[in-house]
Amino acid sequence: MSDQPAILIVEDEKNTREGLERTLNRKYHVIQADNGDKALRLLAEQPVDILLTDLRMPGMDGLTLVRRAIAHESQPVCIVLTAYGSIESAVEAMKVGAYDFLTKPLNLDQLEIVIERALHSRQIENENRNLRTQLDKKFGLEAIIGRTPAMEELFKLIRQVAPSRATVLIQGESGTGKELVAHAIHNLSPRARGPFIAVHCAALPQSLLESELFGHEKGAFTGAVERRRGRFEMAEGGTLFLDEISEIAPAIQVKLLRVLEEWKFERVGGQETLEADIRLLTATNNNLKQLAQEGKLRNDLFYRLNVVAINLPPLRARRDDIPLLSRHFMRDFALANNRKIEDISADALDALIAYDWPGNVRELRNVIEQMVVLGRGTRLTARDLPAAVRETGHAVHQGGGATSAPGSIKDANRRMIMAALETAGGNRTLAATKLGISRRTLHRKLREFGMEHKGADQADNQKEEGRKANSETP
Predict the structure, then answer these.
(1) What Rg do the C-alpha atoms of the chain give, in angstroms?
(2) CA gap 97, 169 in Å, rounded
(3) Which one, 246, 271, 304, 346, has least CB within 10 Å?
């Protein structure tokens, strides 16, 4: 296959077809077809960049060919030729998706210019399509990995809220993926083609944050040597994501409240009122409601920010996702570091599941990267784990029975399960849902802790049936 762009010429007149080939084959890989049916067969056999077709042909006409070619997987750019100079035919061709049209007799210089422009347009479209695919993979729902009930609910909520313009407050511990959720909301929204602008409010001194958000005029303060656009202006037509929103000072809270009420603001030191055509998403790992009650956050701002709240579960509350996440990170880092890593051993996964992950998914990701880089074989095992994680797994396996040393991980896990069972009235299906694990995993943990007893499944099923019956009673 030639590295040159491929042009398919579809023309029933042999002399015209061969004349075009002689003109174009110096720069392009040229293919010929004398009718529409043959052209479609050629499209099915090889990728084509440009389809150059006559409008008037026996059998399938040029318009029908253009319609079917555009729907083809290779999506060639279509240029139509007409001997009649018919504006109506040309307009119809453009309506069905043709890039441009030329009238016969052809000006060959003009033809080459149109082909070059068409190829440039195709290149830009392909680059945009590839970029959108990469963004979807990196920042769409595909990037948020999980199959536990808690994560399924999260995906459902993201899909529900994304099409709206509602302000969203994303809450969760550090490392749970708040910015990934913000990206997913943006990419699933009508503003996906607009910019996504992120500001980490705690990373900037409060003296600079106002200027960073709203911009400033020349001479507004010492060092303001020119006008500067703020993040609200940069996010025009798109989404503005304010991470660590709890860190903003009272003076900025007032200005932000006005934006949320009127969608208007002024630059620092400016008189001109600007419109804010943005979607606002915010995130925090603090309890905003409590901060409002303590007077550290304005109550009216809290209610404006908390239109829709999304709460991200910590990793310890969805332990069944840990093998899925671990293998995903393993594949990514093995590829990035040119390592042949095929799997993770059962003992390593058990230790990863047992560990409490105070740094959540971010910490797990870092641990897997370390294991891939420092691993000594094609399979990650418990010996590749960092000491803190390995010791946790060892404590779980060596503890035995329902008792263990006070303060151990196993004892903490046992108490967490007992609390969930008590809250669920002994119903293990509900307890598993609250813990973010499957019922099978809960049963396995109960057996490990010596809390399982004969007939437990039957009793649990009877409780579940009784609960359903009571809920159905009028």
Answers:
(1) 31
(2) 42
(3) 271
Non-local CB neighbours of 291 within 8 Å, separated by 6+ positions: 246, 297, 302
Per DSSP bridges, beta strands 264-266 and 273-275 are antiparallel
Strands (E), 261-415: 264-266, 273-275, 279-284, 308-311, 343-344, 379-380
Residue 396 corresponds to which amino acid?
Answer: V
DSSP 316: G
Q: Which residue has the higher pLDDT, 250 or 71?
A: 250
CA distance 18 to 238: 50
Asked whether 463 and 469 are in contact (CB, 8 A), the reply is no
> Of 93-97, 353-357, 400-404, which gets the smallest average pLDDT?
400-404
Distance CA 82, CA 101 (A): 8
Residue 111 burial (C-beta neighbours within 10 Å; 0-12, 13-18, 19+): middle
DSSP state of 246: G
Q: Does this model's pTM top 0.85?
A: no
Q: Are 259 and 297 in contact (CB under 8 A)?
A: no
Q: Which of 219-223, 250-254, 376-380, 399-403 has the lowest mean pLDDT?
A: 399-403
* 3-class SS of residue 442: helix
pLDDT(256) > 90: yes
Give all domains of the chain, ordered by start, each with its CATH number. Answer: 6-133 (3.40.50.2300), 140-313 (3.40.50.300), 316-399 (1.10.8.60), 409-472 (1.10.10)
Contacts of 471 (CB under 8 A, 6+ apart): none
DSSP 226: S
Q: Is 438 exposed, middle or buried (0-12, 13-18, 19+ CB in 10 A)?
A: middle
Backbone angles phi, psi at 242, to 5 degrees: -105, 105
Spatial contact of 185 and 198, defined as CB atoms under 8 Å apart: no
